[in-house]
User: What shape does this take?
Amino acid sequence: APQVLLTLAREAALSVPGVVALSPHREISVERLMGRVAATEGVTLSLEDERVDVDIYVVFDVEAEMLPVARAVQTAVARAIHETVDMTVTQVSVHIEDVADFVKRVSQSA
Assistant: This one.
């Protein structure tokens, strides 16, 4: 079920140190309207047979090293989907939508 895959991808991405949040992505495409693409806030999936392509829209901590964190997100998402539902993940694209100073925001709200 696409909702399971969306949840797995979302939780895996958020578990990576340096990822502050997922960013909403509201692209409407023909594939999405025809039901070949599933989406939730920050995650879009394209499903074909037993293969899945994942797009993750992330907000990184301002101090995060972008490339290593993006690679860790790719690995975590692919592993979570493959190990949980045994589907082939053909691609995980990480889109860095924003950066945020997470420590400053937390200390201001305390």
